[in-house]
Amino acid sequence: MKIADYQIGCNYKPFIIAEMSGNHNQSLERALKIIETAAQCGADAIKLQTYTADTLTINHSGGLFDINDPTSLWKNRNLYELYQEAYTPWEWHEAMYKCAADNGIICFSTPFDDTAVDFLENLKTPAYKIASFENNHHPLLKKVARTGKPVIMSTGASDLANLAESVEVLKENGCEDLILLKCTSNYPSTPENSNLRTIPHLRELFNCEVGLSDHTMGIGAPIAAVTLGATVIEKHFCLSRSEGGVDSAFSLEPNELKALVIETERAWQSLGIVQYGVQESEKKSLLFKRSIYVVKDIQVGETFTKENICVIRPGDGLLPKYYEDLIGKLARKSYTKGTPFIG
């Protein structure tokens, strides 16, 4: 499939998405710098999130409106206040899309309600992302699917039945280009709960491109995902974790994003084909395999022994499999030490 000018699939290098989220820390200057830096690091796309606190929740305290989980990065926060801090001002979007285009990188976004979809359509966004926490929001899925744009949907916090239902909603409403991202919806997540073997299973079940939306630390999980067939990798990105931000704790820094781009491409290149036999690139190395060599001068009629022939490198003599048959037989000609035994 294709997003803008990028082909996505097993025959192409992984499509790398740098997720900005709220790492701009309410600074447009920082947001533009994140886009420029992501492009310099080799990412193919920068992803935004398009919402306001009011399109996600209501300004209310108590119960689940407060984050009381002691293990959460956002513990003791109120949802409304958190989203106010993390949201990307809509008036920035046009400048951010332009900055991405000027730097040769795709910009698209995750909408969280109908008004966000309408807004992004006016910006001629090339694709849409559906967040894990929105993949059961059927009215939103219908709205996005009806745009006819490619859809990338994360699969976190969903059982298979609900996921199948969401995919069906997208397809029934016109989505022809779908990518599913294996995702574990905790922040940060761990390698142990990433379960990347799900990736080829997702591809088989839904017959679509599959990737990884990764919240682990580092780049090990994305590299492993590519070896299992992931064609898209999404990672949160910031300029520096030390500068803070709502998602900075599990975001890549520039040197890490650059390494991700390089190493996932190497992982993809290494997959190749099912191959046995000697490759063209290996032919010179055949000389370093073992063969039978004369290690002591041998006269006509002399017996071949372990003292005068040996299996050593280089590999231009008789194959080692004939060595045991030669021992004890008589030489029909003379041989000079240091020459390959060729019969």
Please tell me about this protein's structure:
- β9 (209-214), α9 (220-227) and β10 (232-236) form a beta-alpha-beta unit.
- The strands form three sheets. Strands 5-4-3-10-9-8-7-6 form an eight-stranded parallel sheet. It has a two-stranded antiparallel ribbon with strand order 1-2. Strands 11-12 form a two-stranded antiparallel ribbon.
- The chain is built from eleven helices and twelve strands.
- Helices cover 30% and strands 15% of the residues.
- The chain folds into two domains: 2-51 and 87-271, Aldolase class I (TIM Barrel, Alpha-Beta Barrel); 280-326, no CATH class.
- The longest helix has 18 residues, at 254-271.
- CATH T-level topology of the largest domain: TIM Barrel
- What integer is the average pLDDT? 94
The CATH homologous superfamily of the largest domain is named: Aldolase class I
Q: Helical residue percent?
A: 25-40%
Tell me the CATH architecture of the largest domain: Alpha-Beta Barrel
- Multimerization state: single chain
Give the total of domains.
Answer: 2
The radius of gyration over CA amounts to 29 Å
Low-confidence stretches: none
Shape: elongated
**How do the helices and strands follow one another from N- to C-terminus?**
EEEHEHHHEHEHEHEHEHEHEEH
Work out the strand percent: 15-25%
How would you classify the helix and strand content by structural class?
alpha/beta
Total count of helical runs of at least 4 residues: 11
CATH class of the largest domain: Alpha Beta
